[in-house]
Amino acid sequence: MWSIWATGMVTGLGLIVAIGAQNAFVLRQGLRREHIGVVVAICIISDALLIFGGTAGIGVLVSSFPVVLEILRWGGAAYLTWWGIRSLISAAKPSVLEAQAPRAKGTVVLTTLALTFLNPHVYLDTVVLLGSLANQYGPDTRWIFAAGAVVGSLAWFTALGYGARALSGVLNRPRTWQIVDLLIGVVMLFLAVRLILG
Questions:
Q1: H or E element in which residue 133 lies
Q2: Which pTM does this prediction carry?
Q3: Residues 184, 153, 170, 100: is their CA dihedral positive or negative?
Q4: CA-CA distances (angstroms) from residue 63 to 24, 57, 106, 137, 148?
């Protein structure tokens, strides 16, 4: 039973650890020390809902209606392009982290939700892939696999958000923030191109 849980955790971590739009945003908010608890909570709860939804069989529904993923693909590409350009503009005008005006909690919440749910890869990874893998364990033990994947998500987003927050004092230099914004911008634009190309 523990091996199924551990397999779920490792598989979940393997899918979410890669730097993507959501991870880049969590890192950015952690560095800014801005609403990080809310951001981390939204990411963990969203992943849990998607993983459990996929385990319950929503993955079959999503794969049956590819038009949904197509709409998410184009919406996500547009949003990632906008976010990437915004980050590159910010990189052109570096400043220390505290020098930037704080963003309203509502704006941060909406951005976190958009970066989570407008990304079609989140549905492919958490709903379809993790849901399919979980269901291979049968009706009873599939939930153990899913719980392991959720714990992996909890550990990752907590470490990423609060780890960045812990290092924000060390990283509070204009040059460092310029590099972070540049990397985020490049990653966002790269992911947007990948979404457009399919």
A1: helix 131-135
A2: 0.71
A3: positive
A4: 27, 11, 32, 20, 24
